[in-house]
Amino acid sequence: MRLTFLLGEVGNGIRRNASMIISVVLVSMVSLFFLGAGLLAQREVSTAKGFWYDKVQVSIFFCTSQSTDVQSCADGAATQAQQDQVKSQLDSMKPLVEHVYYETSQQAYDRFKSQFRGSPYLSDVSPAAMPSSYRVKLSDPSKYNEVVASFEGQQGVEAVSDQSNVLSTFFKLLHVISVGAVALAVVMVICAILLITTTIRQVAYTRRRQVSIMRLVGASATVIYLPFVIEILLATVVGAALAVGLLWALVHYGVEGLFHSSGSSTGDLVSMIGTADVWDFAPWLFAGAVVIALATAWITLRRYLRV
Amino acid sequence: MIRLEHVTKRYAAGGSAALDDVSCEIDRGEFVFVVGSSGSGKSTMMRLVTREITPTAGSILVAGRDLVPMTERKVPLLRREIGVVFQDFRLLEGKTVYQNVAFVLRVLGEKRHRIKQLVPETLELVGLDGMAGRLPHELSGGEQQRVAIARAVVKKPPILLADEPTGNLDPETSAEIVTVLDRIHKTGTTVVMATHDQGIVDVFKKRVLELRSGELVRDEAEGTYAADETRERERAAQRAAEALLRDED
Ligand SMILES: Nc1ncnc2c1ncn2[C@@H]1O[C@H](COP(=O)(O)OP(=O)(O)OP(=O)(O)O)[C@@H](O)[C@H]1O
Ligand SMILES: [Mg+2]
């Protein structure tokens, strides 16, 4: 069978069953979109966790001149002596304290500014209002409580925060999103498989005379199946392409747009996935689409299209 | 070319036999009419030869191939040796006459220049030159059947099966169609035609195989539609009926 003839037959099949083919495109798009979203959420969890575990687990914020309502800050901004005291205490807590670094209020302000660019509240915040802090990296992140307890309420320390607590809500949310997306993806993949089955049966019906003549003149099973398989393959691959496009848009305009982190330094609270992660998953989504299409088409044709 | 040996076909296990212990041989280059009333098993015989169905018992040889042990993968090769024509033409509605005929060759992967040569040649053979661009619904029944015949023989099969090809046509057109089949027969093709068209069978004087409720009851060279003794009996029945009608008056 020549390629032009084959493509002509495929084109005919798509034209005559346009609505079914379009629904296959859409259903594969939606199922692969959810699958991709689930995978991206998982990756976000590991990216953020990796980032977090790599950096700090506990932050010790010093009093600013504005934090007088906190009891340990009654004397105003933390003095250099109070800060040095904290530092030497931290140094004595090795090896649990693996690494300590200091963030000045100016650095904190810069980071804040880059994280919340375009926010109307930005003008209300001055560098002096941002606390300087020690960021502490622990050798065993699960023992953050020991560190938190020893600095809580100390003079000049406004707050000790175990940021993994803050993040754990975020992780939980991501986890729910991820599991939910994958569950939806599974449901949608089942829909896609059923729809492909129905579509092939409908296409086979509109092409029944063609098929019967092909059989009659001695066309091989492969030749008879080929137009069907190509139609379904095209539809799912287009669906996969659309899904990747949607995921890219989601990450580019959603994640990267909201949590823009470019240019900011290591002090970021979380690190977000980027469009590069979408490209990482794209081949897998395409492969999934191809496998689902081929397997379903083949099984359906073997079952319903006698050759 | 085609050999049936003690072939029995039951569609349902334990049901009545559509073909009952039929043995016959059709040689290369023959033209054979298969006759018999509706339900006598003519189409069943055709479908066995194309291996659309397999026999319940017996063996079938077609073009040197044994059809009973044949695997599904080999069936297309068998079918490339056989052209088939049906009562209801079965043309592809959206395709022109030319495309309908070329379809077969394209499906079989024939080279473009061969298609350009074979299709007009075949259309001329069946008397359709000048109609290549027409769509099926722009043709008469006889013309449509010519297209179907062209489609069946364009790949030059050694065997042509025609299952009641004149069933939907008037007597004159039917005769034309069988003339076309005869022309194809003269090119060396083995032709088997199932029919209940008495006029055709009587005029063309070919070998006749007669089936009656699945049994092969007659195999006659240059036969007629009804066997001589049958016609005797029919005439006797007619005379009796006429006598009865006279008595009633
Ligand atoms: N697919 C089938 N399933 C079950 N029984 C069938 C099937 N096809 C045919 N039969 C039966 O087999 C017998 C022979 O049918 P067949 O079609 O071969 O007859 P025929 O001689 O071609 O008749 P006609 O002249 O009407 O076409 C009939 O009794 C018919 O009911
Ligand atoms: Mg029949």
Automatic annotation (TrEMBL), chain A:
Domain FtsX extracellular: 56-160
Membrane topology, record value: Multi-pass membrane protein
Stored Gene3D superfamilies: 3.30.70.3040
CC terms in the record's Gene Ontology section: plasma membrane
Keywords: Cell cycle, Cell division, Cell membrane, Membrane, Transmembrane, Transmembrane helix
Subcellular location: Cell membrane
TM segment ranges: 21-41, 173-196, 217-250, 281-301
Top-level taxon in the UniProt lineage: Bacteria
Signal peptide: none
Domain ABC3 transporter permease C-terminal stretches: 183-306
Listed GO biological process terms: cell division
Family (UniProt): Belongs to the ABC-4 integral membrane protein family. FtsX subfamily.
Protein function: Part of the ABC transporter FtsEX involved in cellular division.
Subunit and partners: Forms a membrane-associated complex with FtsE.
Protein name: Cell division protein FtsX
Organism: Flexivirga caeni
Automatic annotation (TrEMBL), chain B:
Keywords: ATP-binding, Cell cycle, Cell division, Cell membrane, Membrane, Nucleotide-binding
Gene Ontology cellular component list: plasma membrane
Localization in the cell: Cell membrane
The keyword Cell membrane appears for this protein: yes
Residues making up the signal peptide according to the UniProt record: none
Function in brief: Part of the ABC transporter FtsEX involved in cellular division. Has ATPase activity.
Similarity comment text for this entry: Belongs to the ABC transporter superfamily.
Name the UniProt record assigns to this protein: Cell division ATP-binding protein FtsE
Gene behind this protein: ftsE
